[in-house]
Input
Amino acid sequence: MSRARFYLIGFSALVLVDTWTQLSFKLASHRTGEFVMTSVWLKAAVASPWIYGAIAGYLGAFFTWMTLLKHAPVGPAFAVSHLDVVTVLILSALLFGEHLSALKIVGAACIVLGIVLLSLSESKHSHA
Output
């Protein structure tokens, strides 16, 4: 497998798993309500299947991240690992009706642009 294909598949998997984790937490919070350290809240959290989805997501992200770090330069890899901020923002608007303001869209575009610039910088640096 080529290096570019490995990165594309690996970082896509990382973003997917990280996005799954955050959406699972959001769905769990719908079931449990606002966090209050009581036995009632804790029982509701343990009973929510979305909590287990979030835990599975964290485990998946950990193994994916460790595999990627073995091969990818840490700077661009760390930047790409935050692309889930953009995917969660978009999916939260679509799935939960959360407001997507112009400022949020600009922020998401800045994140994507930063990732692209870091990747291009690393690409030029590795070919020099």
Q: What stands out?
A: Residues 3-127 form one domain. The radius of gyration is 17 Å. The longest helix spans residues 3-32. The mean pLDDT is 87.
